[in-house]
Each structure stands twice: as C-alpha cells, then as structure tokens.
Request: fold
Amino acid sequence: MRIAARFATAALASFLLLAPPVLAATPPAHRAPLLPRPAAVLPVGHRGVTGASDVARPASTATARSRILSRLFALLRSAIGIPYLWGGISRLGFDCSGLVQWAFAHVGIVLPRTTWGQYQAGTPVAAPRPGDLVFFTTYAPGPSHVGVYVGNHQFVQAGDSGVHVSSLDAAYWFARYIGARSVLPRS
Reply:
C-alpha cells in the first residue's frame, strides 16, 4: 500500500474517532468508484521551489500531500462544533466557504472566499480523495455549498448545525452533489 494511501486511511480513522459520521444509507453499488487521478496538479497560489532547502532535498508529492492532509485534518477536527455564521471566517463562526478558506489558508493554500470562487480555483477530479473539495447545489443553481472530503464518503462542512461531518451518501447530499475539485498536490 502506498504511503499516501496508508496515511489517508489512518488520518480518516483518527478524524472519525473524534467526530462520528452519519452512517451511510445508500448501498455501495450507488457510490462512485474511486478512479485513477490525473498527473500532479500544483495547488492554487503555488510558486514552485521556495528556498535552498527545497532544492537540496525535494519532498515527494505524496509526502507533501501527507503533511498537508495531517495539518488540514487536525484543523478541521478542531473546528467541529463551531457554530454556523453566514459570512463567518473565524472560530467565532463559519459558513461553508469560510471554513474551507480558513482551513486551507492555515496549511499554506490560498483560496477565494466564495463557494463559486473555490469551485473555479480547483481542478476537476472524477472522484474525491481526502483533502479534495466537494461541491453541492443547494439554495442556488450551480455550486452553492462546499465541504472538505475526508474519505469513506464523508466530508466536513459548515452547515446550519455548525461544523460537522456529513455523508455523501445521505439522501440530501447525494441528490445535490455536483462534483469534486482538487487544490492539493496530486500523488
């Protein structure tokens, strides 16, 4: 098993221990299969090599992604239970795109503020991997809600009940899912 896959599985398990997900009600046959991903994509705002130490010892994409996921999942775990606040971008309250922008900014990835902007900034993927953004059409046509995929058909989002883990297989989200986008290095 590849290092990134082992890390993602371990990260998801530890993530879900602190925030139990909604149990999936949709049979596995209705779930999208995990498909191979395109070649590496640089994250939004990435400028390549950042210093001499990067030139001397370049990290593999899988290692860089693992480090980002570890920090990202720790931030998202720490945000569980924070209340929903329309336009919220801090621990006082988050809306969906505010949570995503805040968490990714803390791992060095600058994203636009709105769901639509985040949708445009990401690279489309056939099926989400941990750390990818998942998008839904809710109160308006097109992408109007966003969350961070954590694996096993689960995602973290800021919704009416605050920041929590939801299932892509829940009837509400399954019917409104419009796709996933990646802003992380691909391994």
Observations:
- The helical segments are 3-18, 52-56, 61-79, 96-105, 115-121, 171-176.
- The longest strand covers residues 145-151.
- Residues 84 and 162 are 4 Å apart (CA to CA).
- Strands lie at 89-90, 93-94, 123-125, 133-136, 145-151, 154-159, 162-167, 177-182.
